Amino acid sequence: MKANDTELTSRIHQNLAPSLAEDWPMLMIESAQGAYLHTTDGKKVMDFTSGIGVTNLGHNHPKVLHAAIEQMKKVTHSAVGIVMHETILKLTEVLPTVMPANMDMFFFGNSGSEAVEGAIKLARYVTGRQGIIAFTGGFHGRTYGATSVTSVKSKYRKHYQPFVPGIYFAEYANPYRCPIGDTPEKAVEWSLASIQRLFKHFIPPNEVAAILVEPVQGEGGYVAPPAEFHHQLREICDEHGILLIFDEVQTGFGRTGEMFGAQTFGVSPDILAVAKAIANGYPLGATVSSRDIMSQWRAGSHGTTFGGNPVACAAALAVQEVFAEENILSNAKAMGKLFYDGLVQLKQKHDFIGDVRGVGMMLALEIVKPDGKKTPDPETAMKILNTALEAGLLGYMAGPDGQVVRFIPPLIVTEQEINHALEILEVCLHKINPNEK
Asked: What is the pLDDT of residues 61-76, one digit of tens each?
């Protein structure tokens, strides 16, 4: 590490709030390109976090970078509504061509939390109802409304009570941890029964504005539910006039192998919350719905200063061009299968890998104690992450107890890079568990 960097890092905890600075692993990086981070002390690290699902096209994709630079030469800020700019209008024409059916009207913000906040406000506004059903283990952001519907860890909610009222939690369909049976069918049964309990004991369905769900739980541990779960949610919403909100902040823009999780599971939501990879690193998010629903959200009922920034919108347009030109989704599916199959082979050698799961290029290992009880083992999970990082592979933790090791490779990753990551993991797991099967 350079001397100046050492001086700067010595003041991290003096100048940055612990809520921002106390994370893992606090790598000091000098640059990033493609699937790699380059640290200030000269190391090259394979980034299988993609900025937590943001740089799906890799760091500094040349086409996206060029689009942003060219837009910066023209105008960098536009308070949408006071003035209008070309890139935001072009984006509203391009995005509907890749989104789930009827997602064709947009409110642009800056982040995933804002997109979720907008989705909740929109649902309440147009239905005149107040109830929101979310799911245990879900993560939807850090702002007040988004935290109110987040339940993956109690520490995210600590000291913030009371939350936004009218929030209710049902059980997510997680086959690995379903208390009535570890099959997809039982997981769906358990979840749907919990929704019916809410209707019976807490809120009648005609007072529910929306059901809010992640197609695949992200922070909750990369839990990929049975497709039938989402189909049943769609049926419940249709039966009771409830709006179905998909939080695709992490699953969107190719992460599941399709452009959106809605397409992976074959279910169309009424409202979509997107952000993260939409502009490959430039701050942009959106609450999206049909014109029929969104046009009811009248002027003054919601607003933004920085949302729909010209530079971010230009980058988002370039992102869509890259998807079309470089066969990104095909690569995501192929490399995702290669990586998943390799992780399954590692599971067969190590008892502490309780589950391998995910879809597309969001994959995870759930680490448990080999006691036959699926007891979460966050300590071993962190050993895996730290050992892998020492060898040049960056993953990240997830799950209610931090027991899940998740991988979020860029969608442009190569077969050689996937195989190298698997080689690193094999060596690391052997170091942790030399008595492998």
From this structure: 999 999 999 999 999 9
